[in-house]
Amino acid sequence: MSEAVQQAITILWQGMAGIFAVIGVIALIVYALGRLTNRS
């Protein structure tokens, strides 16, 4: 594989990992807010 293709795949993989991390953080925030609103 050429260097450019490997670099493109690396950037794509890092972007996907970042997106999944952000989705996970948002899901935790929504879960925490749901727990807080249920108590009151």
Major sheet summary line: none
In total, how many domains does the architecture comprise? Answer: 1
Give the count of helical stretches: 1
Q: Which percent range fits the helix content?
A: over 70%
Tell me the number of strands.
0
Note the run of SSEs as H and E: H
- Low-confidence stretches are none
Gyration radius, in Å: 18 Å
- Net shape: rod-shaped
Q: Decide which structural class fits the backbone.
A: mainly alpha
Distance between the termini: 58 Å
Mean pLDDT across the residues is 93
Q: In percent terms, what proportion of residues is strand?
A: under 5%
Considering the chains and any ligands shown, give keywords for the structure.
40 residues, mainly alpha, 1 helix, 92% helix
Task: Briefly summarize what is shown.
Helix content is 92%, strand content 0%.
Describe this structure as you would to a colleague.
By secondary structure, the protein is mainly alpha-helical. 92% of the residues lie in helices and 0% in strands. It contains one helix and no strands. The protein has one helix at 3-39. The protein is rod-shaped and about 55 Å long.
Outline the fold blueprint.
Elements: H1 3-39
